[in-house]
């Protein structure tokens, strides 16, 4: 069964009280969009589409922070099973698409109609602020780029530091305008870590506002993925997960750039709603950069 529209709206209101944030408004907009689409397609149930849209992110009712990537899907599945809603099986499909494995591999005690006590589970990926707990992983990440010769985008000055504490100290300094060096802007730094082995898979940095250089070439966000871990969707997941953080910083539209011809980075941006604006020439690096904007109004 499904909840009624009134019940779904009430569930969303309660969930927003437990874990406030722009996700509830986003869910309302998804519900409206789903209903409008369903009304124009013969055979589709507009009321059901509205309810499913309202509840598609209901797992965010659990306050777990911004960045354990599949956690809200997992929590939504558990909650819908508990309530007896058939939406649980739509969530199950989304979970397995995101995770690349069966939900029963992760939660073998969950039956298809009854929620049993799940075994302890950690999200396989976590996007977190760097700490010394990951000092070795940070240096392994740095080493991989030094050996490959690739550009370490979205890492600040990590290339310079063979001591992770020095990099972390720089990150903390860049979080505040008072300790940000001239010609820089305040930044927030995150790393993508695999829980199974604590390997650092990626790095992503938010620039809180744009100066002249960033406004033309660098953009609000820089990111990179470990050379051995590319083509696995990690960049797309990092960027998707960081957009609410950008909105929380008061950014209305995110500018992201990529080198012309970098099809992987271009796909990452487009998958997250990037709209192409222009291509500019950056003389210092002798490269052409494609500029894309992502509207964050759904996250406000």
The portion of residues forming beta strands comes to 15-25%
Number of helices: 11
Q: Work out the radius of gyration.
A: 21 Å
**Broad shape:** globular
Number of domains: 2
In the sheet with the most strands, the strands line up as 1-2-3-4
Largest sheet: 4 strands, antiparallel
Q: What is the total tally of β strands? A: 7
First-last Cα distance: 32 Å
Report the average pLDDT across residues.
84
Return the structural class: alpha+beta
Give an account of the 3D structure.
It is a single chain. The chain has 300 residues and is of the alpha+beta class. The protein has 2 domains: 5-123, no CATH class; 126-299, Gcn5-related N-acetyltransferase (GNAT) (Aminopeptidase), CATH 3.40.630.30. The chain contains 11 helices and 7 strands. The strands form 2 sheets. A 4-stranded antiparallel beta sheet has the order 1-2-3-4, sandwiched between helices. Strands 5-7-6 form a 3-stranded antiparallel beta sheet, with helices on both faces. Strand 2 and strand 3 form a beta hairpin. Helix 1 runs parallel beside helix 3 (46-55) and helix 4 packs antiparallel against helix 5.
């Amino acid at each position: 069964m499904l909840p009624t529209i009134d019940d779904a709206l009430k569930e969303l209101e309660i969930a927003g009280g437990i874990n406030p944030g722009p996700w509830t408004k986003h869910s309302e907009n998804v519900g409206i969009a789903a209903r409008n689409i369903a009304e124009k397609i013969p055979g589709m149930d507009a009321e059901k589409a509205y309810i499913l849209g309202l509840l598609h992110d209901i797992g965010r009712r659990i306050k777990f922070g911004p960045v354990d990537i599949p956690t809200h899907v997992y929590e939504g599945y558990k909650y819908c099973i508990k309530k007896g809603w058939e939406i649980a099986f739509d969530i199950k499909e989304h979970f397995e698409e995101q995770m690349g494995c069966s939900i029963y591999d992760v939660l073998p005690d969950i039956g298809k109609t009854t929620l049993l006590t799940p075994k302890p589970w950690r999200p396989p990926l976590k996007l977190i602020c760097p700490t010394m707990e990951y000092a070795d992983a940070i240096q392994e990440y740095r080493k991989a780029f030094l050996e490959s010769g690739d550009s370490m985008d979205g890492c600040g000055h990590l290339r310079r530091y063979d001591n992770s504490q020095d990099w972390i100290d720089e990150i903390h300094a860049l979080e505040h305008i008072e300790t940000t060096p001239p010609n820089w802007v305040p930044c927030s730094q995150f790393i993508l870590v695999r829980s199974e082995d604590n390997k650092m898979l990626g790095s992503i940095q938010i620039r809180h506002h744009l100066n002249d250089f960033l406004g033309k070439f660098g953009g609000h966000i820089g990111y990179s993925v470990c050379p051995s871990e590319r083509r696995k969707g990690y960049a797309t997941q990092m960027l998707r997960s960081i957009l609410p953080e950008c909105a929380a910083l008061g950014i209305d539209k995110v500018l992201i750039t990529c080198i012309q011809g970098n099809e992987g980075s271009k796909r990452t941006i487009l998958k997250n709603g990037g709209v192409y604006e222009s291509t500019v020439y950056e003389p210092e690096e002798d490269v052409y950069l494609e500029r894309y904007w992502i509207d964050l109004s759904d996250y406000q």
